[in-house]
Amino acid sequence: MGVGQTVSWDGITGPGPTDSERRRSLRFLLECELRYKTANRRSRIVTGKGKTLNISSSGILFSSEHNFPLLTELEVSVSWPVPLNKTVPLNLVARGRVVRCSEGQLALQIAQYEFRVRRHDYVEAE
Fold it and tell me: Rounded to whole angstroms, how far apart are CA atoms 61 and 58?
């Protein structure tokens, strides 16, 4: 793939890599509703809402109602913008660790992810 070409990741299209891009995975600017919760079962569960700012196959940057210490384990559920077969809404559910925290934003390094059917929210077929 050449510099500046358009690429697609699971139905999301975005600009290709630039000469200055040095990350392992391409980032896609994507704003979707997101819910998160702490994944450590030995402590109090903290939940919140936010929006994705960008996403890749290895991480998610999102707005957050909370600030968490680095390496905090989180599970996030993203309202995926592309329905399965154009009719079945999906959530991207990912687990990982906080690798960056700034005022109102968290970066999550994804350890595992899966797509799940979103409950009670079906799209009319065209």
Answer: 11
**pLDDT for position 78:** 97
pLDDT 10s digits, 18-49:
445 555 679 999 999 999 999 887 888 999 99
- Interatomic CA distance for residues 4 and 116, integer angstroms: 32
* Domains along the chain with CATH numbers: 23-117 (2.40.10.220)
Nearest CA to 89 out of 119, 52, 54 is that of 119
Instruction: Tell me the C-alpha distance between 119 and 38, whole Å.
Output: 22
Query: pLDDT at position 111, please?
Result: 97
Task: Give the pLDDT confidence score for residue 20 in this predicted structure.
Answer: 52
Strands (E), 1-126: 6-9, 12-15, 28-29, 33-38, 47-55, 59-63, 73-84, 88-102, 105-117
**Could you give the maximum distance between any two Cα atoms of the chain, in Å?**
47
Please state, as a whole number, how many other Cβ atoms lie within 10 Å of the Cβ of residue 14: 16
